[in-house]
Amino acid sequence: MSSLFVFLIVVQALIAAALVGIILMQRSEGGGLGVGGSPTGLMSARGAADFLTRATKWLAIVFVVLSIVLAALAAESGNSATSINSTLDRSTTPEAPTAPASPAPASNNDPLSGVAG
């Protein structure tokens, strides 16, 4: 894995955690896990809701764009592997089936060799 890929995955995880936190702080229609408190505080409820809504929007946009970038990087690095073939590139002739391996003979030192299972 390249260091850029690892860095972007870490950034993606941080954005995801921030997005979860911002969403949980918002007041739902039923009052759910919203931030309580009086509207006379430092920030009014309307201003806090506006900030949380905007933060959610921008974090979601960054999350989706970063997901697309990470998918493109993963697909690009996966194309260089020679062991992975496309379904269309595979041969259509079936391979001959191999005979199943014969079981190993039981050793004389096995105390359970005479027990029927």
Report how far apart the termini are.
Answer: 49 Å
- Class by SSE composition: mainly alpha
Count of discrete alpha- or pi-helical segments spanning 4 or more residues: 2
Gyration radius over CA: 29 Å
SSE order in H/E notation? Answer: HH
State which percent range the strand residues make up.
under 5%
Regions with little confidence, pLDDT below 50 for 5+ residues: none
- The shape, in one word, is elongated
DSSP strand count: 0
The largest pleated sheet is described as: none
Give the overall average pLDDT.
Answer: 76
**Helical proportion, percent range:** 40-55%
What does it look like?
- There is one protein chain.
- The protein has 117 residues and is mostly helical.
- It has a domain at 3-30 and 47-81.
- 49% of the residues lie in helices and 0% in strands.
- It has 2 helices and no strands.
- It has helices at residues 3-25, 45-78.
- Helix 1 (3-25) packs antiparallel against helix 2 (45-78).
- It is elongated.
- The mean pLDDT is 76.
